[in-house]
UniProtKB/TrEMBL annotation:
Belongs to the LPG synthase family. It is found in: Cell membrane. The lineage of its organism: Bacteria, Bacillati, Bacillota, Clostridia, Eubacteriales. It is a multi-pass membrane protein. Keywords: Antibiotic resistance, Cell membrane, Lipid metabolism, Membrane, Transferase, Transmembrane, Transmembrane helix. Its EC number is 2.3.2.3. InterPro entries: L-PG_synthase/AglD (IPR022791). It catalyses: L-lysyl-tRNA(Lys) + a 1,2-diacyl-sn-glycero-3-phospho-(1'-sn-glycerol) = a 1,2-diacyl-sn-glycero-3-phospho-1'-(3'-O-L-lysyl)-sn-glycerol + tRNA(Lys). This is Phosphatidylglycerol lysyltransferase. The chain crosses the membrane at residues 45-67, 79-97, 117-143, 155-182, 228-251, 263-285, 291-310, 317-335. Pfam families: LPG_synthase_TM (PF03706). Catalyzes the transfer of a lysyl group from L-lysyl-tRNA(Lys) to membrane-bound phosphatidylglycerol (PG), which produces lysylphosphatidylglycerol (LPG), a major component of the bacterial membrane with a positive net charge. LPG synthesis contributes to bacterial virulence as it is involved in the resistance mechanism against cationic antimicrobial peptides (CAMP) produces by the host's immune system (defensins, cathelicidins) and by the competing microorganisms. It comes from the Bacteria.
């Protein structure tokens, strides 16, 4: 990603943070807010950050498994770096999948072909979306108290998020399981869009579709040859989401509260995530905070829900954005240093050979 686009993303994120802070904190007296936050048990904050490490670590393990099936013996620590890069770039770009091209770039820098990197990210995205939808569906079915609190604007967001993610997941699965039928349907859609002048370069769009179809065909082939891979990926995604969805419960305990079990927190956060994750905003900043306040108000109470939101989002997004940014920067600089050393070594060998002739 270019430096200008990176800077634009950071500026947009800063603006969204400022507007969100003003809207949510304008009626919250600063003195009482600081007094409440002072009571937070720091040990639970560290536990929450540990859960975020599990979140990133699970994606890294998915990457290692997939790349291993593709013939790449990628060290787990490298896969961790890819995941940190993905978290950081996704957080500063207006797309939940904005970090995928960056991860593919760094994989390619380490010798993984771009096609294999794209295939890895596609399989992870499919499994992640399936797991989010299943988690939210279970919460909706088995936690009836949640349904009563999902009205108004949050309910509309939930409907939008479920429709968008459901359509994307169904489309990706159809390409994976029924590539020929899906390819013909997609070609028909491109023809229609070309006729109404939404797509002007039909040939170029067709080439992109063909390349995408090749990736889906390769993904289907991997899953057929490795029948245990899909259950492992889904299991890791379930652990990944359970870790991040547990952060509000950890915050609940950090405030010294008890009496409500973790299931309600997991289900509530699953529905909030589904509601806001498809919005084209960096880190879903704004809707994520507002959704938390609306959904968790019955659990934390009106007086504590805003401080709880600050701590929860501070752990699961803002603090981890800084951590992932630092890791991504170090990883980038290490790669540049290694590239420079390889260039110098190549130059030394070249001129050393010339001097002996």
């Amino acid at each position: 990603m270019s430096n200008k686009r990176n800077l634009a993303g950071v500026l947009l994120l800063a603006v969204l943070m400022g507007v969100t802070g003003f809207v949510l904190l304008r009626d919250q007296p600063l003195g009482s807010l600081l007094e409440i936050l002072h009571r937070v048990d720091g040990r639970y904050v560290l536990l929450g950050l540990g859960l975020m490490l599990v979140f990133v670590g699970c994606e890294a393990m998915c990457t290692r498994l997939i790349l291993g099936r593709l013939g790449h013996r990628t060290p787990y620590r490298r896969c961790l770096c890819y995941s940190f890069v993905g978290f950081y770039v996704s957080s500063i770009t207006p797309s939940a999948t904005g970090g995928q091209p960056a991860q593919i770039y760094y994989m390619s820098r380490d010798g993984v072909p771009a096609a294999h990197g794209a295939l890895n990210m596609m399989l992870i995205a499919i499994c992640y979306q399936i797991t989010v939808l299943l988690y939210a569906l279970c919460a909706w079915l088995f936690l009836p108290a949640l349904r009563q609190g999902m009205g108004g604007g949050l309910g509309l967001l939930l409907l939008y998020g479920a429709a968008v993610m459901g359509a994307l997941t169904a489309g990706m699965l159809s390409f994976l399981c029924f590539p020929h039928l899906a390819g013909r349907l997609a070609g028909g859609v491109l023809d229609l869009l070309n006729r109404v002048h939404i797509i002007r370069d039909r040939a170029g769009a067709g080439e992109k579709l063909a390349r995408q179809m090749e990736e889906y065909a390769a993904g289907a082939g991997i899953l057929r040859r490795n029948p245990a891979l899909l259950p492992m990926l889904l299991g890791l995604n379930a652990l990944q989401l359970t870790a991040v969805f547990s952060v509000p419960y950890v915050v609940y305990r950090a405030f010294g509260l008890s009496g409500t079990g973790p299931a309600l927190f997991l289900g509530t956060q699953a529905l909030v995530t589904l509601a806001v994750s498809s919005l084209p905003l960096p880190g879903a900043v704004g809707p994520a905070e507002g959704g938390f306040v609306a959904a968790f108000a019955p659990i934390f109470g009106a007086g504590l829900v805003t401080p709880a939101m600050l701590v929860s989002r501070g752990i699961s997004f803002y603090a981890f954005l800084i951590i992932s940014g630092a890791v991504a920067l170090a990883f980038h600089l290490m790669g540049r240093k290694a590239g420079t050393e390889r260039s110098l070594l190549h130059s030394d060998r070249k001129y050393g050979t010339m001097s002996t002739t």
